[in-house]
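Design request, tokens follow.
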């Protein structure tokens, strides 16, 4: 195998750092093909086709690479039929069959999958008891949540303290029923906080989303909701996390579909519990970006009767998030304090995008110059300037709700934050 040129070595390093970058991998394959390394080029194009099966450039490059004679074929016997002119697609498929998975499964495989499915396509069958994955008590704690000290204190006072002190709870006759609704702009860590709460309680964690509940067949959505709570009761103590509550428990008055109204009714039934102690040890947490779209009945006592506003990360939290997303990347001379200051107002998802964009800048520069370099402050500051806070549209909508629909003082925390930021 010929020795790689410095440019090819640099591109190999860049591809290893960003394996999903299809254009960069195809550029490497082009250079390998130009150097006569057809087998290496085929391997790179095969990986590119895994990420982008329909990429026309990758298909054309594979045709060229496979068309090069890597070795002389053995002479065919005289009785063999003459080979068809043009590119041998069967030989190409045989060579890359292991690298590129088929786009469609065979009929017999599909039949096996359908036979193994506990809920048949006609809506029959019973839900599998193990259809919902219950995570065992994890090691994530509130201490692992960077910054957000005010959120932690409110969680401790309103939710965790009564649950972690059984003697005091017994003395005062405090039940373990009721739940907590987390709301705020998207990408600010509501799900991570819910996992941290489960860790603090030493409880199992059951995450529930729309696709876990809703079903096209009448009655199946309600049955799925019941089975989820039955699973949580069997695994108690267990935290049930209802993600995107506005989709699972939207206002029934706005729903034109009976199935959705029945699903909300079933959720209310499960939260109340038929038996007085049915939900002991089941802690319900829910998250939503639009609490004003959640059915009011879900927020009555004994249900999701406590709320907590989760805002964009503060400076210590931003430092922790940036450190986390840069931990496995090649960096040098990064001033996290300065970065946290210039990224004020960005959500956790925005900060992850800043790190990704900075890595892309360094990667493209390395590919252009042929020399691999580290990610520096210049890359991160440039990426931060280009990222628009994704939380602004949410605050624009929440501002109107807080001003004109603050019934019962639910949005007092939001109003205080908007005034502090001079947005109200």
């Amino acid at each position: 195998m010929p020795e790689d040129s410095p440019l090819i070595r640099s591109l190999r390093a860049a591809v290893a750092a960003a394996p999903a970058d299809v254009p960069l991998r195809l550029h490497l394959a082009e250079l390998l093909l130009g150097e006569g390394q057809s087998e290496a080029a085929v391997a790179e194009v095969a990986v590119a086709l895994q990420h982008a099966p329909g990429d026309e450039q990758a298909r054309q490059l594979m045709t060229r690479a496979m068309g090069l004679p890597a070795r002389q074929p053995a002479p065919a016997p005289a009785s063999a039929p003459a080979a068809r002119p043009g590119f041998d697609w069967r030989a190409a498929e045989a060579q890359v069959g292991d690298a590129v998975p088929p786009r469609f499964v065979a009929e017999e495989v599909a039949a096996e999958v359908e036979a193994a499915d506990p809920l048949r396509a006609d809506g029959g069958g019973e839900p599998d008891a193990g259809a919902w994955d219950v995570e065992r008590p994890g090691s994530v704690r509130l201490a692992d949540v960077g910054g957000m000290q005010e959120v932690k204190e409110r969680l401790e006072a309103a939710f965790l303290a009564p649950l972690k002190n059984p003697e005091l709870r017994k003395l005062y006759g405090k039940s373990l029923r009721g739940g907590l609704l987390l709301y705020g702009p998207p990408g600010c860590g509501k799900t991570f906080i819910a996992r941290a709460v489960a860790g603090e309680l030493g409880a199992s964690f059951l995450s529930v989303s729309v696709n876990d509940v809703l079903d096209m067949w009448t009655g199946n959505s309600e049955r799925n909701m019941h089975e989820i709570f039955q699973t949580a009761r069997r695994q108690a103590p267990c935290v049930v996390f209802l993600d995107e509550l506005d989709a699972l428990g939207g206002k029934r008055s706005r729903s034109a579909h009976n199935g959705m109204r029945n699903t909300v009714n079933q959720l209310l039934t499960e939260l109340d519990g038929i038996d007085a102690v049915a939900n002991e040890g089941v802690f319900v947490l829910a998250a939503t970006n639009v609490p004003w779209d959640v059915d009011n009945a879900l927020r009555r006592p004994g249900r999701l009767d406590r709320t907590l506003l989760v805002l964009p990360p503060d400076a210590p939290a931003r430092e922790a998030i940036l450190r986390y997303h840069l931990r496995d990347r090649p960096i040098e001379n990064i001033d996290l304090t300065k970065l946290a200051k210039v990224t004020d107002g960005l959500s956790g998802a925005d900060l992850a995008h800043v790190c990704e964009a900075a890595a892309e800048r360094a990667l493209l520069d390395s590919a252009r110059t042929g020399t691999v370099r580290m990610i520096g402050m210049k890359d991160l500051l440039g990426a931060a300037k280009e990222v628009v806070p994704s939380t602004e549209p949410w605050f624009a909508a929440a501002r109107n709700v807080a001003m004109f629909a603050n019934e019962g003082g639910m949005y007092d925390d939001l109003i205080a934050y908007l005034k502090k930021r001079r947005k109200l």
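Comment from the thread starter after seeing the answer: thanks! The first helix runs from residue 6 to 17.
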